[in-house]
Amino acid sequence: MQQIHSCIDIDATPSLVWAILTDFGSYKRWNPFIRAIVGKPSNGNALRVTFQCPGRAPASTTSTLTYLREPRELRWRQRRLAPGLYTTEHRFRIESLPAGGVRFHQTEQIQGLFAALVAAAASGRPRRVSTP
User: Fold this and answer.
1) Is the pLDDT of residue 30 over 80?
2) DSSP three-state, residue 80
């Protein structure tokens, strides 16, 4: 399993950050990787997610919203190719800070045989390719 994680402290209430997070039409304004989401934020709903890695053309996938706990956490999962080859779970979590504001966590867990290659491409790290 590979994991990509980032977080940022935001001087805002959890409910405001949640409102922006669940406004799928606004993603292109604040998320440089996820360019669009079509669907409704409700458990079990299908989402059409369009993402774009730096220097690459946009690509869209169908995901399933697997967990929604207002105003704290949102997750969706996508499977590509055949089971066991490539599955991702994207998580957004809003954590209240003691001094006010929130810490916004964004995590993507990648599982399957192609996990290492995909994680390297998404993070911009160089890949090592071995040949027999």
Assistant:
1) yes
2) strand
**Taking the CB of residue 41, how many other CB atoms lie within 10 A of it?**
17
Paired with 46 in beta bridges are 64
| Per-residue pLDDT tens over the stretch 51-84 | 898 889 999 989 999 999 999 999 999 866 666 6
| C-beta of residue 11 within 8 angstroms of C-beta of residue 100 | yes
Q: Is the pLDDT of residue 117 over 50?
A: yes
User: Could you give the CA distance from residue 90 to residue 74 in angstroms, rounded to a whole number?
Assistant: 8
Distance CA 14, CA 25 (A): 19
Task: Give the separation between CA 52 and CA 43, rounded to whole angstroms.
Answer: 25
Q: What 3-state DSSP class applies to 55?
A: coil
Cβ–Cβ under 8 Å, residues 1 and 109: yes
By C-alpha distance, which of 125, 55, 124, 47 is closest to 90? 47
**What pTM value is reported for the model?**
0.77
